[in-house]
Amino acid sequence: MDLITALLAIVGGIAAIFALEIALDYAWFLVQRGWNHKEAGRHDKALANFHRAVELNPKYKWAVASRGHHHHLMERHDEALLDFNRALELDPNCDWCLGNRGETYRLMQRYDEALADFNRAIELNPLNKWEIANRGQLHRLMGQHAEALADFNRALELDPSCPWYFANRGETYKEMQLYNAALADFNRALKLDPNYQWAVANRGETYLLMQRHDEALANLNRALELDSQSARSLGNRGEIYRLMQRYEEALADFNRAIKLLPDHDWLLHHRNLVYQALNQKDLHL
Q1: In the 3-class helix/strand/coil scheme, how is 198-231 assigned residue by residue?
Q2: Residue 6: predicted pLDDT
């Protein structure tokens, strides 16, 4: 090899190294820009940036995991799992990747796999309050209320200012029929975030279960101001109206709820109860 050829080879190698460094830096930039697009609600642009970052550097864990997280937000769960699996091949100890894969499994109702991922994520990072709370939510969905309470209590020790933790602990108490404890937690959640629709709706449902219909109605009216398309809130308000013998208003709410959820057995059954009550009322006129 003559001197010129050797120099060209060296220059070519240096250029290749610079090109690789530029590609890696640009992949990092694309991931950051993708997250900015995501925060602004520009989901297609976010996904395009994550795709391009992965193309530039297929071994860049955060690019792969960020794309998985975005697939998860778009409810494209199978694609999210592929990305989280790949990210965890690159870094088996990424607690963020494990937690997000666990949340994807939860949404797919693959609860045992979700629990395994949350357990591993918390083992790697015992102070990860979000994964502790997410595991609490999973325990609640699995009917494991004592375990759910333990996780929500721990999450609230780590962060006593999170309304989501209070509301989910309140929901756990509600399912355990500990209604006063549930109300206390919903109240605390709403003190932190007065416009937290899910907490308002669940407080209304708790009042309904306690047969405190006026307070239930006030809360469900507020919940529907915050989200007029909530079939659950419409159904619960319809049930309150039915119990208060305000049948026309009950029927209107059940009709709206069923338009949103046409095959919901509970809604259909309770609307039939309203029809029966209206028929009985007509017979007595």
Answers
A1: HHHHHHHHHHHHCCCHHHHHHHHHHHHHHCCCCH
A2: 46
pLDDT score recorded for residue 281:
65
Cα–Cα distance, 166 to 148 (Å, whole number): 12
What's the burial of 11, exposed, middle or buried (CB within 10 Å: 0-12/13-18/19+)? exposed
Contact at 8 Å (CB) between 197 and 191? no
CA angle 174, 178, 184 (to 5 degrees): 80
Mean pLDDT by 10 residues, the chain (285 residues): 50 40 68 85 86 90 91 93 96 96 97 98 97 98 98 98 98 98 98 98 98 98 98 97 97 97 96 93 55
- Alpha-helical (H) ranges within the chain are 3-39, 43-56, 61-73, 77-90, 95-107, 111-124, 129-141, 145-158, 163-175, 179-192, 197-209, 213-226, 231-243, 247-260, 265-283
